[in-house]
């Protein structure tokens, strides 16, 4: 099933018979469709269906089993939020320093931070409510505070493409609501957002488009049309268990 995430009609990413997997073992059917510039897409499905693998393939952290993934206007700057479990939380650095890392992709690793960048970092930290903790070691942060810090880094990056892998895992409902507001603001500012999610209610409320991955099929399009397929596949999975 070909899927098109609707938006301003300009395809940012094209998938052509793209098969995702690990070490040559496929975990998805061939995927064909487009991620449209300025769109906001939730990637949903059961565990092991290739959701995170798709993001890592876009990032070139993993290679596809077969098929093609292409950027239609050249590879954009990409802001990447990995799963919280994949993050090193014992590294000896501060909240401020981590948020400053958001400036590296655009300026280079060894570039000094000018006044404009420092102001942008301070503004991002303030927006996520961590100003009083900016000099704290990151190992002292709670799960919600740690995720807010990573979102501040995303704000500093201000990348055209934002990839989020389970951004609400391990945080309370208040923090989830706050982070969802930030994601919506990114989308409203014109950034293209792709997020791996497990909360159907949140997907239905906030994400216009959905890519549903299963072991044998995929459904891609408007949320109102795709989400019922996920509910049906979840019921079938439960009945077969």
From TrEMBL:
Gene3D superfamilies: P-loop containing nucleotide triphosphate hydrolases. One of its GO terms (molecular function) is ATP hydrolysis activity. Coiled coil: none annotated. PROSITE patterns: ABC_TRANSPORTER_1, ABC_TRANSPORTER_2. Keywords: ATP-binding, Hydrolase, Nucleotide-binding, Transport. The keyword Cytoplasm does not apply. Its EC number is 3.6.1.15, 3.6.1.3. Residues 13-240 form the ABC transporter domain. Belongs to the ABC transporter superfamily. This is ATP-binding component of an ABC superfamily zinc transporter. It comes from Buttiauxella noackiae ATCC 51607.
């Amino acid at each position: 099933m070909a899927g098109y995430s609707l938006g301003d009609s300009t395809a940012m990413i094209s998938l052509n018979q793209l098969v995702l997997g690990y070490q040559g073992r496929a975990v998805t059917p061939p995927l064909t469709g487009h991620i449209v510039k300025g769109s906001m897409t939730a990637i949903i499905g059961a565990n092991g269906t290739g959701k995170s693998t798709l993001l890592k393939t876009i990032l070139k952290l993993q290679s596809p089993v077969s098929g093609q993934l292409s950027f239609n206007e050249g590879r954009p700057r990409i802001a990447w939020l990995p799963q919280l479990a994949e993050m090193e939380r014992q590294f000896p650095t501060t909240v401020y320093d981590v948020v400053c890392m958001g400036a590296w992709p655009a300026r280079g690793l060894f570039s000094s931070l000018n006044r404009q960048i420092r102001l942008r970092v301070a503004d991002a930290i303030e927006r996520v409510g961590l100003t009083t903790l900016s000099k704290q070691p990151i190992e002292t942060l709670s799960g919600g505070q740690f995720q807010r810090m990573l979102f501040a880094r995303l704000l500093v990056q201000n990348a055209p493409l934002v990839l989020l892998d389970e951004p609400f895992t391990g945080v309370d409902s208040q923090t989830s609501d706050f982070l969802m507001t930030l994601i919506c603001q990114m989308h409203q500012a014109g950034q293209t957002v792709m997020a791996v999610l497990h909360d159907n209610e949140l997907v239905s409320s906030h994400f216009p488009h959905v890519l549903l991955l299963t072991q044998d099929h995929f459904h891609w399009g408007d949320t109102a049309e795709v989400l019922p397929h996920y509910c049906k596949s979840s019921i079938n999975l439960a009945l077969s268990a």
